[in-house]
Specification:
Oligomer: heterodimer
Radius of gyration of chain A: 14 Å
Shape of chain B: globular
Radius of gyration of chain B: 13 Å
Distance between the termini of chain A: 38 Å
Order of helices and strands of chain A: EEEEEEEEEEE
């Protein structure tokens, strides 16, 4: 079983919709949770970063972490065509010993927002 | 401009012909890492380096070598490439490694091994 599971989609929504992207994970040691956005033919770029459980909001984006369920989400409100990209979740633990420097990515979800 | 550069951006080669993909960053970052991205498998970590002369294996190190002789450079070496190494490769760097530290990714190198 892969340590991080993410539905690859594709997901297609109309402009203005609320988008929900999700990842599940199996390693209870994961403490840091990230969402990267990757436009076509580009490298990923960090979108949001959260530590442990809870919510974090940044403009139209909200990241949620539920450690009890080993489940993280990214919500996009009022989605725009410019949000069309692949969204990758990534996780790491406290980075002690052999896992220092390791980052675990999901497969990515391809999102299209049509006008 | 702060950036991570990779060369070449595209490469088609034959099985067994040694190749090197270069990666360079101008942000004085301590941490650098190589990933490969394949359809349906996502981004997988190949090797990473916490600092000069310190490298460690990621998820899929087999068939690859790296070195970190200078802080700014982190080349990826394929001593004897095989078709299963056909992939999109990304180099990334950050001031500190995971768990903290935003990673900046290069533009990618698309490698085809025939």
């Amino acid at each position: 079983q892969k340590e991080v599971e993410q539905d690859p989609g594709p997901l297609s929504v109309p402009e203005g919709a609320i988008v929900s992207l999700n990842c599940t994970y199996s390693n209870s040691a994961f403490q840091y949770f990230m969402w990267y956005r990757q436009y076509s033919r580009k490298g990923p770029e960090l979108l949001m970063y959260t530590y442990s459980s809870g919510n974090k909001e940044d403009g139209r984006f909200t990241a949620q972490v539920d450690k009890s369920s080993k489940y993280i989400s990214l919500f996009i409100r009022d989605s725009q065509p410019s949000d069309s990209a692949t969204y990758l979740c990534a996780m790491s633990d406290l980075g002690r010993g052999s896992t220092l420097g390791r980052l675990y990515f999901g497969r990515g979800t391809q999102l299209t927002v049509w006008p | 401009e702060a950036q991570v550069t990779q060369n070449p951006r595209y490469l088609i080669t034959v099985t067994g012909k040694k190749l090197t993909v270069t990666c360079s960053q101008n942000m004085n970052h301590e941490y650098m890492s190589w990933y490969r991205q394949d359809p349906g498998l996502g981004l997988r970590q190949i090797y990473y380096s916490m600092n000069v002369e310190v490298t460690d294996k990621g998820d899929v190190p087999e068939g690859y070598k790296v070195s970190r002789k200078e802080k700014r450079n982190f080349p990826l070496i394929l001593e004897s490439p095989s078709p299963n190494q056909t992939s999109l490769y990304f180099c990334a760097s950050s001031y500190t490694g995971p768990p903290a530290g935003e990673q900046y990714f290069g533009p990618g190198t698309r490698l085809t091994v025939t």
